[in-house]
Write a structure and sequence with these properties.
Layout (H helix, E strand, L loop, with lengths): L2 E5 L4 H12 L5 E4 L4 H10 L8 E4 L2 E4 L3 H10 L5
Parallel strand pairs: 1-2
Antiparallel strand pairs: 1-3, 3-4
């Protein structure tokens, strides 16, 4: 399983999702759209020219600005616990 999280330092959902993944000891790649040009440009492609976050990629699935409920359901479906 490959997980990539686009977010921004200090953003509440980004911090919560990172903390959960870290506490569950799930390997993931984090890209801060405020400093990672490639992630920022990719975000613009996904959101019709806007930079939005968080964005969650799990294997081949993309979750655009997932809510806490969506994130929690995904983690439950993957049987991950923080």
């Amino acid at each position: 399983m490959k997980i990539v999280l686009y977010g921004r330092k200090g953003h509440a959902h980004t911090v919560a999702y990172k903390n959960f993944l870290n506490s569950a000891e799930v390997p993931f790649v984090y890209k801060d759209v405020s400093i990672d040009e490639e992630a920022r440009e990719h975000s613009k492609e996904l959101y019709e020219g806007q930079v939005k976050y968080p964005t969650l990629f799990i294997d081949d699935e993309v979750y655009l600005t997932p809510t806490s409920d969506t994130f929690n359901k995904l983690m439950q479906d993957l049987k991950l616990r923080g």
